[in-house]
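note to self: dont lose this again. the chain is below, predicted strucutre after it. 317 aa total, dont forget to put it in the shared folder this time
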Amino acid sequence: MSANGPPELNPDRRVADSIPRTFVDRAPAALRPYMRLARYDRPIGIWLLAIPCFQGLALAAIETGISWMLAGYAILFAIGAIAMRGAGCTWNDIADRDLDAKVARTADRPLAAGTITVRKALSFLAAQCAVGAAVLLFLPLNAIAIALASLALVAAYPFMKRITWWPQVWLGLTFNWGILVGYAALGGTDWIAAGLLYASAALWTLGYDTIYACQDMEDDALVGVKSTARAFGPAIGPAVGAIYASSLVLAAFAAIKAGAGLVFAPVFAAYAVHLVWQASRFRADDGPACLAYFKSNREAGLILLAALLLSALLPMA
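---
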């Protein structure tokens, strides 16, 4: 550090997996590192965090019926997903900044690349958490308590890849906690159904994040990072297929337990076809295709959401 203060930060860099020509690239230069740190140029994570919240609401609506509260809570959860996904990514990059600098796909992330300081990242983390806390104020007390219980999962996640070969399991437990929060917010009472859907979603995340982790297997091996993609090795295709099959069974039981009618079946069948398509087509050595299959889980999650919403709209069908 010079006598005049800290050295100049490196210029802003586009990050791997970013959607080209997003609003982030057109934002003022001073804001871009923060927006990239929160992954605003990679919105798939926001979808994959918000969709389980919406599914929890829809599952509860099968029991409680459709109301304007459903739409109101959906808006709140969308805001919360944007804030808390950004906060989670910020925390993850603070913890992983040294590892990220050694991996080709993550070397351009703001902290690894030196386009933002850790102190500024911590301040940004606090601001995003404040937005998430503000959203919680509009939820019932039991939903707030359930939401706060997830903080330990969130805090520990960045370190799981150093400890276990199964960090994707931890991610599944963390990323789908919104099912339980959404279910509680709308007043659902069948916690067996909610637990089954949560377990199903955790397995869904285990499957799709294993596909995503295929992109980094060589770099992860070099720096000593663990993942299910590396753990499964040559059996990764059948393993993802078995994980998705288990997820489908649990989701079906959750819907049946909640009282979903026959209208659930055809849309759920489309969801099943989507997961089978992913599991049968991805190849661990084709990184770009793995990324595409991973991103397609936005559509997969929305299909299951549609099946649950139809069951709430047409309870006798």
